[in-house]
Amino acid sequence: MAEPAGGRPVTVSDVQQLVRRKDEIEAQIKACYELLEGQKGVGMHEPLVDSEGFPRSDIDLYQVRTARHNIICLQNDHKALMEQVEEALHKLHAREKEKHARDEAEALAEAMGQNQSLPQAFAKVNAVTPGSPASVSGLQVDDEIVEFGSVNVNNFQNLQNIATVVQHSEGRPLSVTVIRGGRRVHVGLTPKRWAGKGLLG
């Protein structure tokens, strides 16, 4: 099939255009057959001469010949067009399948990439007291802590490390990075005195 201009891939509208063209050709063929029918029911193969070999005088020979010629040409066009429609549909389906496979592969690669690029957590939030500095900053239960101020997986030994950072940062914002639902989230946390225990809650 001839590719659309510029060798671009076949689109749905290209197929629709071909189908419209096919419908037009079918309408023209029908009109030609109706014309033959109107000429005493002369079809495609009835003789155009009488028993004595003279051109028939009861029909319009020119119209009949023209209609027959047009039908043959239009049927050839119709056949070629049907092949184009079929090929275009094949290409369209193949491209859809290809696109679907590519999308799936990209989604998979992205998911794999995200997993690989997520840093390692060293602690998990198991409770957040409502109204506490931790709660106000947006920390949530099950957040996995990746960085807490200067503490990260490389230098973390025990929870005392975090307590030390908290005491030294009272009233100053701390940068905290957590993993939440498979994504990295940054939280600005300011340790301070509040109605409850500790500086975080």
Key phrases:
49% helix, Pdz3 Domain, 4 helices, alpha+beta, 5-stranded antiparallel sheet, 201 residues, rod-shaped, single chain
Structural features, described:
InterPro entries: Nas2_N (IPR040815), PDZ (IPR001478), PDZ_6 (IPR041489), PDZ_sf (IPR036034), PSMD9 (IPR035269). Keywords: Chaperone, Coiled coil. It holds the Pfam family Nas2_N. Interacts with PSMC3. Part of a transient complex (modulator) containing PSMD9, PSMC6 and PSMC3 formed during the assembly of the 26S proteasome. By secondary structure, this protein is α+β, with helices and mostly antiparallel strands. Helices cover 49% and strands 11% of the residues. Strands 1, 2, 3, 4 and 5 form a five-stranded antiparallel β-sheet that branches. A hairpin with a 2-residue loop joins strand 4 and strand 5. Helix 1 runs antiparallel to helix 2. The model has no long low-confidence stretch (mean pLDDT 86).
Biggest sheet details = 5 strands, antiparallel
How many structural domains? 2
Cα gyration radius (Å): 40 Å
**How many strands appear in the DSSP assignment?**
5
Please tell me the overall pLDDT: 86
Helical coverage, percent range = 40-55%
